[in-house]
Amino acid sequence: MNRPLLISLLAFGSLASLAQTPSKKRLIQPKDYYRLQTISDIQVSPDGKWVAYGLSSVDSTKDKRNTDIWMVSWDGQESIQLTNTPEGEAKPRFSPDGKYISFLSARQGATKGQVWLMDRRGGEAKKLTDLKNDLEDYVWSPDGKKIAMILQDIDYSDSAKTKVRKPYVLDRYHFKADVKGYLENSPLHLYVFDITTKKLDTLTTGIYNETSPVWSPDGSQLAFVSNRTEDPDRNQNTDIYVVEARKGAKVKQLTTWAGSDNNPVWSPDGKQIAYLRSTANGNFLMYDQPVLAVISPNGGEPTLLSKTLDRPVRNPHWTKDGKAIGVLVQDDRQSYVAQYTLSDGKLSKLADGKRSFNDLAPVSANNWAALMSDPQTPTELYALENGNARRLTHVQDAFLAPLELATVEGFTSRSKDGTQVSNLLYRPANVPANKKLPAILFIHGGPVAQDDFSFDMTRQLLAAGGYAVAAVNYRGSNGRGLDYTKAIYADWGNKEVLDILGATDYLVEKGIADPDRLGIGGWSYGGILTNYTIATDTRFKAAASGAGSSLQLSMYGIDQYTNQYENELGAPWKNTDKWLKLSYPFLKADRIKTPTLFMAGEKDFNVPSAGSEQMFQALRSLGVPTQLIIYPGQFHGITVPSYQKDRAERYLQWFDKYLKSKTL
Fold first, then answer.
1. Which residues belong to the signal peptide in this entry (predicted)?
2. Dist. CA 264–CA 610, nearest whole Å
3. By three-state DSSP, how is residue 88 classified?
4. Shared fold status for 305-403 and 405-659
5. Is 501 left (phi over 0), alpha (psi -120 to 50) or beta?
């Protein structure tokens, strides 16, 4: 063998060896928000061979997320992008014959979203509607000739000829809501649109809202949800109604529960309607969990299939053969797929484990399409076949490829009063199990929600910063039964704080957390609980309170929760002592020694920025290190990608400043 050839072979071998060497993984960073894609709104084709979905990705030049419509074959072998426009698309729906996919978009400079129609085999989409109203929801009729629509009445109050808007004229009890802003009188009504003639027939009118329309299998009727009490703003009652799909038809009320009846789904034979009913039979439903119910479309007493489960169920769907109803069940850090058999009412788990399912659609008798994530994998689309999950999409592969993520495990702590609390622990990658770490208790909002075995970007980022991160399912969370959820009724900042401190004690006792380097944070009710906790215990050396409040008395009338306040706490002028008791983080602010970062969205009507501003001002006056961050134009949820990145960076900078010494 000659020398040049030998050198070439050696060089080739070295390059091949280098190519086979996996690149070194890195820790997740705030800038990775720009790379994270999200899947939503799965829709199965009538023949069960395709699943359409929305895929959201970041347009970094415009600093916003944009959603396009994709489609994947049931065998997972083909993936097709159907739309690709800067305006974005939403709500993909297959036509009943499976030949077309419709979607909503405000293309070509339109100010209102319209229904567009696309041949699923390809080609340009065509605009189907030219609506003047805001379109909230739509659903195809079974014969494919009509579309039921929920449209909002046109608001004629802002008819100013200049850019200066006319004053808001408000006379409602519930007069503001996050994202929607100030609420005037523009109800949502049910219409039927004829695809051939483009004629739009009005089915409902009046002061009431109609939502969640579903066609009967024969196409003769529509079921929908509405609150038709004397003053809908003063309660959370909703009922199921049916109406013939023709102009002038009389509306018929099916359910009479004083709580809520929602999410109607017609059985394939048209003889039953499944829906979700609240457990509570009253005006106030904050601490509640839905029950799966079935009723005849002629009315009568419903059958409560999940009454004895004592866990919240959601997302009901009939199986294709009509013999069972699939649901998602939230249960102690899990969200699993289950099925109720109609003949005997028996519950069967189809897919569970340390993962979280968050959407569901029927494919055949025993097969389902579902969205699922786990602690180290953001949401992907899966096929569930006889209980086995097979991944259909791989949109997160590129996101995950360079990353080394924290490991996640469950742990159970005991609070001072003996209550057992279910939690999650995020351990940084490549850190010895016996190493004592600075720790952050990052608290979920709600309060009626739960931290489960799903992917959590914020906690992964904090763990990548070198922190042990704990998620605490304090009392008030769901997934542990109704009594556990209702335990904090009219008693905020008491049992939840006991549970947070109990989890903190556990981490310290087990040698996981350094007791001298403890932090706490959260958003929404997590921010509220951060304030309650640092006003109770001074052991935390840093805190980050997002979209929180403390002077609860001052929240009356400036946020969207008046109905809750008056039902749970009583009117402030009648029950002032209760309101003042729950305002202790502000009224006892001089007890707080923890350096605290406060954050809020400028336009938040859920927990207005005043809640953060008040606490910032109090700590600033008291000389406690503090800072206030207001995100311009943002509502309760921060949605601008650069702001999401900024928030994560500020979390890390703040905690690093107070929890890490120069020697670390």
1. 1-19
2. 39
3. coil
4. no
5. alpha
> 3-state SS string over 472-487?
ECCECECCCCHHHHHC
Task: Round to whole Å and give the CA distance between 445 and 345.
Answer: 34
653 contact partners, CB below 8 Å, separation of at least 6: none
User: E strand or H helix at 621, and its extent?
Assistant: helix 610-622
Give the separation between CA 7 and CA 548, rounded to whole angstroms: 67
Q: Parse the chain into domains and list their residue ranges.
A: 305-403, 405-659
Through-space distance between the first and last CA atoms of the chain, rounded to whole angstroms: 56
Sheet arrangement for strand 239-244: 210-215, 221-226, 239-244, 252-253
Asked if 525 contacts 561 with a C-beta cutoff of 8 angstroms, the reply is no
How far is the C-alpha of 506 from the C-alpha of 434, rounded, in Å? 15
236 vs 239, 258, 563, 568, CA distance in Å?
10, 9, 9, 13
In terms of Cα–Cα distance, which of 486, 571, 494, 568 is closest to 533? Answer: 494
User: CA 478 → CA 100, 290, 312, 452, distances in Å?
Assistant: 40, 11, 7, 11
Of residues 616, 454, 413, the one with CA closest to residue 527: 616
Per-residue pLDDT of 282-337, as tens digits, reads 878 899 999 999 999 999 999 999 999 999 999 999 999 999 999 999 999 999 99
What was the pLDDT predicted at 3?
44
| DSSP secondary structure code for residue 648 in this structure | H
Question: What does the pLDDT read at residue 452?
Answer: 97
CB 530 within 8 A of CB 540: no
> What digits encode the pLDDT tens for the residues 474-521?
999 999 999 999 999 999 999 999 999 999 999 999 999 999 999 999
Rg (CA), the chain: 27
Determine if the pTM surpasses 0.90: yes
Identity of the amino acid at 652 = L
d(CA 455, CA 374): 5
Q: Report how far residue 526's alpha carbon sits from residue 440's, in angstroms, rounded to the nearest whole number.
A: 13
Give the C-alpha separation, 623 to 230, whole Å.
51
Contacts of 13 (CB under 8 A, 6+ apart): none
Q: Are 478 and 312 in contact (CB under 8 A)?
A: yes
Please state, in angstroms and rounded to a whole number, the distance separating the CA atoms of residues 227 and 561: 18
Task: Produce one character per residue of 509-546: b if its CB has 16 or more CB atoms within 10 Å, e if not.
Answer: eeebbbeebbbbbbbbbbbbbbbbbbbbbebbbbbbbb
CA pair distance 449, 443, nearest whole angstrom:
11
Where residue 123 falls among pLDDT bands split at 50, 70, 90? Answer: confident
Evaluate if residue 662 carries a pLDDT over 90. no
**Architecture category of domain 405-659 in CATH:** 3-Layer(aba) Sandwich (3.40)
How big is the chain, counted in residues?
664
Return the closest-CA partner of residue 296 out of 340, 339, 335, 252.
Answer: 252
